[in-house]
Amino acid sequence: MDFAIRPYVEADRPAVIAALVALQEHERAIHDTRLPGGGGTEIYFDKLLSELAANEGGLFVAEHNGRFAGLVAGFVEAYDVVLETSDSCLFGYCSDIYVDPEFRGSGLAQTLLDVLERHLAARAPISRFRVNVLAVNRVACRAYERGGFVPYEVMYERIVRRD
Prior knowledge:
Elements: E1 4-7, H1 13-30, H2 39-54, E2 58-64, E3 67-78, E4 90-99, H3 108-121, E5 128-133, H4 138-146, E6 154-159
Parallel strand pairs: 4-5
Antiparallel strand pairs: 1-2, 2-3, 3-4, 5-6
């Protein structure tokens, strides 16, 4: 499938809000900490736009034949943790990714992540790119569950690819 991926423009707002509501509802169906999508989504989106502007971020929209197909958003995260390496304390972070159900399994999600990673790497000296997800490493999950833990979020990372 052919996708056009481009930076967000204000005319995309209704489609992006609808996607964020759908994402929230999906997560709500698999974990009880998520609130219903809807009212708070526009507040969240406005806050996200501010976060992107303040932290070298990007928001990209994917289209297929002129139709909204997905989005990805993220920014550069920096913090000072004495017990972590400096490259771990400055990283690209994918805050949101959504692919319309019609396009799942097409490779679009990976393409969106690659676009965001390149965007962030061009703006900051990052060597790591991370994303949180309500999914678990099954081996680690079993170990944690034996200890009384329940799954919540796992942060994945990969080394930034340089062309």
